[in-house]
Write a structure and sequence with these properties.
alpha/beta, TIM Barrel, 2 domains, 7-stranded mixed sheet, binds iron/sulfur cluster
């Protein structure tokens, strides 16, 4: 028997993340837990701490217009970003000799980087390359054309990964395993087969998250100009709503019961385990809508987190942010809630985005956060299909009235796989190539507003959404004039510091 046959099976997980800032992605955390349980020797190649010039440019722009507060990372090693990610990846593949290389592609944004890793794999590599992630579900036919891959995991992997790897590792495709759900593979003749059926994971019984393979820096997240040691967990997966620009709309159509919530006992057991092992200051619930769960569950899980001495952060929808629920958050140590606003035109929200909350509801959600001293972040998009300048300014005015602590705005990026993308496409608005890495660029050519105007509004949006209407003529000039832009930035900083 050769040394290779005697040793444990090896799996190299590749996370093609840009430098978004450090965090602990749930997909990698759960995949490594499953593989470890199945007896694999694992290594993680994480692109997070490599210097990516494109994102840096985007980040600089974001700081310049006030989307993010600068953070003092001194002492956390964030200044030691490396550059040669392809060279380091190739060296790791050669030294580790993995049986499998698994690349998780979360969105189209990560596709280019993921493909650069796939291209870098030597032609004489003897193992198998597997890809998975939401991007692969949505763009399956395109993904099938990637060179060098032998399998695609479509959908969730927790209940099938081990069987899928056994199947792929068998000398010849085993008939007894060829109906592994969610697996798309090349048969012995090289023809794509599967999936035999699609299943959702039973999230109550998946292994606890595993952060052993992440760089220590992944634990640190910026918060209000400071740095917190933070873990990322999920209480629920999916979302009960169907906004037209969101992948949940598609999954809610495809699967009944797509929105799943863990039991309180299981969630608290996992958080206790993670906190003991990794010594955290805070956790972030990565749920799409943390407050969608019922009041009893919300009280029980948040009280449990408080008893462990942890702060927490979450996301929610305005409709779920009643005074009672926000008070539960505040009483139990919530420090931040992120809330999608998206558009300030109620008709557009309802008819185009399928978001049926009123302006009053949105304003009330942020007022409730102010009342209980929870930092609120509002997310919105501008330059969505058929939006006008008036619509975009309505969004700015609504945000000004709602007065969240933080406003995060982006130009609408037409990601495939949802109704809003189809809407834009059917109207002929998607004509050129899209660089998903640059969220400061408008990619829609539409009659309602020129793309250059959307980009100028992106740059000045923070002024429109924070300063009174009397400033609007000056802000309109700042769209063209850098000196006026700088004067307004000073005026805004002055206002926000009071
Ligand atoms: S509420 Fe948020 S997560 Fe849910 S469907 Fe809408 S955009 Fe998606």
């Amino acid at each position: 028997m050769t040394a290779k046959l005697k040793r444990k099976k090896r799996f190299l997980i590749v996370s093609p993340m840009f430098d978004f800032g450090p965090f602990l992605p749930l997909n990698i955390s759960v995949i490594s837990a499953i593989l470890e349980k199945a007896g694999y020797e694992i290594k993680l190649f994480d692109a997070t701490f490599y210097k990516m010039p494109v994102r840096d440019g985007w980040k600089e722009a974001s700081f310049a217009i006030g989307i993010f507060k600068p953070v003092n990372w001194m002492g956390y090693g964030m200044d030691k970003l490396k550059k040669d990610y392809i060279g380091d990846f190739k060296r790791l593949v050669r030294s580790f000799e993995p049986d499998f290389i698994g690349i998780s592609i979360f969105t189209t944004l990560n596709e280019k980087l993921a493909l650069s890793f796939i291209d870098a794999i030597d032609d004489d590599y003897e193992g198998q390359v597997i890809v998975g992630g939401i991007h692969c579900d949505i763009n399956l036919e395109r993904v099938k054309h990637y060179k060098k891959i032998s399998a695609i995991i479509a959908g969730e992997c927790e209940n099938m990964l081990e069987d899928a790897l056994d199947f792929l590792a068998a000398d010849s495709n085993r008939a007894d395993l060829c109906n592994v759900p969610n697996l798309i593979y090349r048969d012995d003749a090289g023809t794509w087969k599967g999936p035999s059926n699609m299943v959702l994971s039973d999230i109550e019984h998946i292994p606890f998250l595993n952060w052993d393979y992440f760089d220590e820096r992944n634990f640190y997240r910026p918060f209000e100009g400071k740095v917190l040691r933070m873990g990322h967990v999920e209480m629920a997966r999916g979302c009960p709503f169907r906004c037209t620009y969101c992948i949940n709309e598609r999954f809610n159509k495809q699967f009944s019961g797509f929105w799943r919530v863990k039991s309180v006992a299981r969630m608290l057991k996992e958080i206790r385990y993670l906190n003991c092992k990794y010594k955290l200051e805070a956790i972030k619930f990565w749920d799409d809508d943390f407050l969608a769960m019922d009041m009893e569950k919300l009280k029980a899980v948040t009280a449990g987190v408080r008893k462990m001495g942890l702060k927490f952060l979450c996301h929610s929808r305005p409709e779920h942010m009643s005074l009672e629920k926000v008070k539960v958050l505040a009483d139990n140590g919530c420090i931040q809630v992120g809330v999608g606003v998206e558009s300030g035109n109620p008709e557009y929200r309802r008819n185009v985005l399928n978001r049926r909350m009123t302006d009053e509801r949105i304003i009330e959600a942020f007022r409730n956060c102010r009342k209980y001293n929870i930092i609120s972040s509002a997310y919105c998009m501008i330059g969505m299909p058929d939006e006008t300048r008036k619509d975009i300014l309505a969004t700015a005015r609504l945000l000004r009235e709602a007065n969240p602590h933080v406003i995060v705005h982006a130009i609408y990026a037409p990601y495939e796989g949802n109704r809003l993308y189809q809407y834009a496409k059917s109207r002929g608005y998607l004509n050129g190539a899209i660089n998903y890495e640059n969220t400061a660029e408008c990619y829609l050519e539409m009659p309602s507003i020129p793309r250059q105007e959307v980009e100028k509004l992106f740059r000045t949006f923070i002024f429109y959404s924070r300063l009174e209407d009397s400033y609007y003529p000056l802000i309109a000039q700042a769209e063209q004039d850098e000196n006026i832009f700088r004067r307004l930035k000073v005026a805004l900083e002055d206002k926000l510091s009071k």
